[in-house]
Amino acid sequence: MESAEPRSWLAVKGKSPEAVRSELHLRASSVPSDPQEYPLVGASSEAGWYLIVARGREHRLIAEPVIQRLSAGCEVLTCTVEEQEIFSAAAGWRDGRRVWSVTYEGAEAATDVVAEGDLPPAFEAIRTRRTAEAKAEDAGDALVDPMFEIAVETVRSVIGYSCKYGEASPGFDGRFVTLQATDRSWWQRLFTT
User: Fold this and answer.
1) Spatial strand order in the sheet of 75-82
2) What angle do CA 110, 111, 115 make, to 5 degrees?
3) What is the dihedral of CA 99, 105, 110, 115, to 10 degrees?
4) Residue 132, CA distances (Å) to 28, 111, 142 in order
5) Phi/psi of residue 45, each to 5°?
6) How far apart are CA 142 and CA 126, in angstroms?
7) Stretch 72-76: mean pLDDT, rounded?
């Protein structure tokens, strides 16, 4: 199994890519040969989603204050994964408020998935299937904790993208561009506590 850096992403539907980049003080730059090599990339899908992928677990780009503002008048989905720590989280936002969330932290002692809100339609089937897989397998022998997959699969069921390392996302593959900050002071405020 290949090791991967933690990744976070957000996807917006209901605002143009230009509007999203403007609100986040970003500009599109170049077309990368391998999007996973860059700290910040973006892509549009034919289904109307604009996706921004960043390096880092729970990257500040998907912090609540940022997403709360960004989701005004549209829908925003977020996801973050850290495979080595067996951590995954996903959330859906609409009009400035969180509508649903799914989180799993399995590094210390596997716990159940924490799910709240008005979850996407596929959630229950995904949770049922993955819970059955977890019970059927010896967790120590499994390459991937089935419970870790629940948040990732739930959000993927909505937009078709997974931030897991090496997983194909046909709706977005080949569409990425690198992103750069247009307002360094905004980004510095975003990254200071």
Assistant:
1) 26-28, 177-181, 40-44, 49-55, 7-13, 75-82, 87-94, 97-105, 114-117
2) 140
3) 0
4) 43, 15, 13
5) -110, 160
6) 18
7) 96
pTM of the model: 0.85
Cα–Cα distance list, 117 to 57, 91, 105 (Å): 22, 10, 19
* Burial of 162 from C-beta contacts in 10 A (0-12 / 13-18 / 19+): buried
Residue of higher predicted confidence among 38 and 7: 7
How far apart, in whole angstroms, are the C-alpha atoms of residue 19 and residue 139? 44
Place of tokens 């290949």: 2
Closest CA to 81 of 157, 150, 182: 150
105 forms beta bridges with 87
pLDDT for 101 equals 96
CA 10 to chain centre: 5
In angstroms, the CA 113 to CA 33 distance is 36
Among candidates 66, 62, 65, which has minimal Cα distance to 52? 62
CB 170 within 8 A of CB 179: no
